[in-house]
């Protein structure tokens, strides 16, 4: 290994990549813009659409209710509902989303409210459709209020106190510290995002520095120089890793800033997620039990991601090197995203916990340990095992890459 | 000095099986001499030169370049060799100066030495006008001049030119040919592959005719003319490889 050669190759690749529009786009522009766009663009639109759907009076059809004029009048008077005349097939109206639901009031409903047997109100709705769901909630609230009012009237008529039907209360009290709440709520999501970014950030430079060079004919020029191939590989590898980490850092930074601004933008000054030590402190001070993330956990995540970035960089270089052209390399590398996403997603599922076995599964182990660290839980033996095993995987991937660089059939594939 | 002894290179091909691209090729090229490797497309010229430049490992046989063995001392060989081929392109996003300096650094030269050498090469090759422009905007001639400067930055003792005039206009090709001759005049060992007969006639001190991976004839221009009883290089070539039918067959394969 010759560090002077490695540095020379690395600095040249860095300069070259920073002049490449595709790399700039994938390494700097997209990571910086994607989160603000998601939060302020998609997020704002979604918030507005949902708010509009909630505020809008639910169009409903009342079926029956001829002998329950009081209930029908109360429904008509309620501003949450807009009663549609029951013309045509109500099932079709619901499935065509012309009305949110149909409310069937059984015969003799109002009479039964006085003392008769309990009757059933049926709500015909569209399962899974958001507006129908909102309508159902509003109608259920209406009838719940009516039921409680009826119970209160019956109790009063019998001269009984209200707590006859409510002998005790159940109260929930959170005892988990805000870091743990935050760690559990979003701790699974953060490593998942970081893993994907690490991978996508490394993708384009890895292709450009290998298959791209072969396609442009510069690989042979480089191989003519009196530099050992291991130094060429390491120089290129460091560049790909730089891109991977730069992508991740820029995204985290822009996400943190977007959440900090976006949180107050959408919630009127209340933040639910805070990234970074200062933000976490501010959140804790301002919100008391608001979920936050252990700031030390963030540093832990960064430390653990380093060998994974190494692993991705070496793996992508090896695979892309095999291709003759940029396009061919893209077709090899793109499906790998799924392979990376799968274990990262598994880490978010409940029940999959950190064990000696899962600690050895690449990507999944990182996802699991990051979740723990962000909750403020530090399993040092697992952390050491994961760091060590990922370093071994990365070293194997680099060795494989050097081996590929020394293979004539790969370097001079016709 | 280039000394090749029984160089052989075989490749495995899924469809065609084992292919012998270079078959038992031996030759010597001394300093101050241009050795012309003449052959049709696919004759084995590029594979031979890639073995000499240590880009490919010989399957059998040996070669020494400036005293270093290509099989065991690849780095030393490359430090004494300048390799220029149609397949050795430039980094389009670097300027000509950055490109040449990069290879100077890879050859272990200091910054001052690199800049002095770039200035000298730019004078010799008339490159000053485009020295600080990006290579992807260059004409073919500018590219070829930059490539020559890149191969010469470390002042190698041995120069390998693999069809350097391929696709160039007449004027640029003449500049290249003149430059190859100057390399010889400065005492460098030069090996020059081509399929252009006139270039061989004008330029080469020793001519080796390669066909089907084998070196089928070798000698000076005068020696080959006497041996085949022909003055024209093209006629000599066709006779050496076994007639027009053999050339056509080789091109078909």
In short:
With 414 residues, chain A is mostly helical.
Secondary structure blueprint with pairings:
The complex is a heterodimer of chains A (414) and B (253).
Chain A: H1 3-18, H2 21-55, E1 58-64, H3 69-77, E2 81-84, H4 90-95, E3 101-105, H5 109-114, E4 122-125, H6 130-157, H7 178-186, H8 189-216, H9 218-223, H10 229-267, H11 277-287, H12 295-322, H13 326-333, H14 336-346, H15 364-374, H16 380-405, H17 408-411
Parallel strand pairs in A: 1-2, 1-3
Antiparallel strand pairs in A: 3-4
Chain B: E1 2-13, E2 17-29, E3 33-38, H1 45-52, E4 60-65, E5 68-69, H2 74-79, E6 81-85, H3 96-106, H4 111-125, H5 140-152, E7 158-162, H6 170-185, E8 189-194, H7 197-203, E9 206-211, E10 214-219, H8 221-228, H9 233-241, H10 244-252
Parallel strand pairs in B: 3-8, 3-9, 6-7, 7-8
Antiparallel strand pairs in B: 1-2, 1-4, 4-5, 9-10
The biggest chain-chain interface is:
A-B, 24 and 32 residues
Low-confidence stretches of chain A: 268-289
Distance between the termini of chain B: 33 Å
Gyration radius of chain A (Cα, Å) is 30 Å
Trace the largest sheet of chain B across and list its strands: 6-7-8-3-9-10
Helix content of chain B: 40-55%
Helix count of chain B equals 10
Q: How far is the first residue's CA from the last residue's CA of chain A?
A: 30 Å
**How would you describe the shape of chain A?**
elongated
> Which structural category fits the helices and strands of chain A?
mainly alpha
Poorly predicted residue ranges of chain B: none
Q: Which H/E pattern describes the elements of chain A? A: HHEHEHEHEHHHHHHHHHHHH
Strand content of chain A: under 5%
Approximate strand percentage of chain B: 25-35%
Biggest sheet, spatial arrangement of strands of chain A = 2-1-3-4
The backbone outline of chain B, from C-alpha atoms, is: globular
């Amino acid at each position: 290994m010759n560090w002077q050669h490695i540095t020379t190759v690395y600095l040249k690749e860095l300069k070259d990549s920073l002049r490449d529009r595709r790399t700039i786009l994938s390494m700097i522009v997209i990571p910086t813009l994607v989160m603000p766009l998601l939060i302020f663009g998609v997020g704002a639109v979604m918030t507005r659409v949902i708010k509009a759907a909630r505020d809008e009076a639910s169009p409903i059809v009342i079926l029956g209710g001829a002998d329950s004029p009081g209930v029908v009048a109360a429904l008509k008077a309620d501003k949450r509902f807009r009663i549609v005349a029951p013309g045509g097939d109500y099932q079709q109206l619901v499935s065509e989303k012309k009305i949110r639901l149909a409310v069937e009031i059984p015969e003799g409903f109002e009479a039964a409210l006085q003392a008769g047997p309990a009757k059933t109100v049926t709500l015909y709705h569209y399962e899974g459709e958001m507006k129908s769901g909102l309508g159902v909630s509003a109608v259920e609230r209406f009838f719940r209020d009516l039921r409680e009012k009826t119970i209160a009237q019956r109790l009063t008529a019998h001269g009984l106190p209200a707590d006859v039907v409510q002998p005790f209360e159940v109260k929930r009290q959170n005892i988990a510290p805000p870091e743990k709440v935050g760690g559990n709520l979003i701790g699974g999501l953060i490593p998942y995002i970081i893993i994907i970014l690490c991978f996508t950030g490394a993708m384009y430079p890895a292709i450009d520095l290998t298959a791209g060079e072969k396609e442009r004919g510069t690989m042979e020029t480089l191989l003519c120089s009196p530099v050992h191939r291991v130094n060429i590989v390491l120089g290129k590898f460091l560049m790909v890793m730089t891109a991977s980490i730069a992508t991740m850092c820029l995204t985290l930074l822009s996400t943190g800033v977007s959440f900090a601004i976006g949180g107050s933008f959408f919630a009127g000054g209340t933040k639910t997620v805070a990234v970074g030590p200062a933000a976490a402190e501010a959140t804790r001070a301002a919100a008391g039990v608001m979920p936050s993330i252990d700031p030390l956990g963030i540093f832990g995540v960064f430390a653990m991601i380093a060998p994974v970035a190494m692993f991705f960089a070496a793996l992508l270089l090896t695979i892309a090197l095999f291709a003759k052209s940029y396009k061919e390399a893209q077709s090899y590398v793109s499906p790998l995203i799924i392979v990376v996403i799968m274990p990262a997603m598994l880490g978010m599922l409940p029940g999959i916990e950190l064990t000696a076995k899962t600690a050895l599964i690449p990507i999944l182990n990182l996802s699991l340990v990051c979740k723990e660290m962000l909750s403020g839980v530090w399993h040092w033996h697992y952390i050491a095992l994961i760091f060590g095993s990922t370093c071994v995987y990365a070293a194997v991937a680099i060795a494989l890459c050097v081996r590929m660089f020394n293979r004539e059939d790969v370097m001079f594939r016709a | 000095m280039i000394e090749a002894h029984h160089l052989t290179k075989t490749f495995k091909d899924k469809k065609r099986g084992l292919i012998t691209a270079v078959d038992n090729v031996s030759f010597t090229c001394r300093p101050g001499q241009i050795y012309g490797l003449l052959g049709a497309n696919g004759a084995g010229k590029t594979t031979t030169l890639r073995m000499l430049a240590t880009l490919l490992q010989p399957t059998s046989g040996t070669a020494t370049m400036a005293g270093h063995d290509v099989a065991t001392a690849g780095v030393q060989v490359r430090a004494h060799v300048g390799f220029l081929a149609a397949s050795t392109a430039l980094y389009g996003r670097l300027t000509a100066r950055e490109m040449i300096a990069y290879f100077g650094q890879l050859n272990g030269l200091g910054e001052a030495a690199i800049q002095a050498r770039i200035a000298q090469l730019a004078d010799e090759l008339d490159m000053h006008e485009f020295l600080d422009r990006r290579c992807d905007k260059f004409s073919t001639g500018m590219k070829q001049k930059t490539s020559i400067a890149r191969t010469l930055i470390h002042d190698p003792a041995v120069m390998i030119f693999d069809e350097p005039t391929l696709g160039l206009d007449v004027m640029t090709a003449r500049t290249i040919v003149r430059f190859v001759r100057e390399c010889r005049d400065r005492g460098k060992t030069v090996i020059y592959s081509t399929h252009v007969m006139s270039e061989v006639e004008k330029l080469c001190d020793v001519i080796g005719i390669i066909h089907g991976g084998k070196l089928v004839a070798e000698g000076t221009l005068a020696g080959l003319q006497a041996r085949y009883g022909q003055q024209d290089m093209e006629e000599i070539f066709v006779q050496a490889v076994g007639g027009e039918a053999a050339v056509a067959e080789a091109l078909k394969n």
